[in-house]
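Students often ask why we bother encoding 3D structure as a string. The short answer is that it lets us treat folding as translation between two languages. Here is a chain of 147 residues written in the first language.
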Amino acid sequence: MIIDGLLLFSSAQNITTGTEASTNVIDLQNARDMGPGQLPLRVAAYVVTAFATTDSATLTIQLQGSTDNSTYSVYAQSRAYTAGELTAGAKLAPLDWPNVAVGALPRYLRLAYVSGALHWTPGSITAMLVLDREDRVAYPAGINIAV
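And here it is in the second language, the structure alphabet:
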């Protein structure tokens, strides 16, 4: 996976409660279809600092687009992650770029972090737009895998 700093939504951004927009907004310079192609775009998000809660808190990540950097529409959304899944190093939001109607082509992109909780111990997330996610499984040295 190659990471471009200009395609970074959040860098170890602390997420508390309610709905928070990503620290960075990506400006595509003009409205365009970033849709499926030979190299599909994806959102990659990783937990940097673990989340904790005393209730049944959840976190959902939304990919949002806008034509004016003011009013945003949700283009794709992750499932709701529980605090037990939001451990340091966890990979979240394997969102593929969705098909977007021609009249709604975005110029601006951001993420929204939607907390379904009132009692988070804030965690942090790094998220970016990438061509390919790093989803390989790391196995310990010397392990034998039956084929």
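Translate back mentally: The chain has no helices and twelve strands. Keep this in mind for the problem set.
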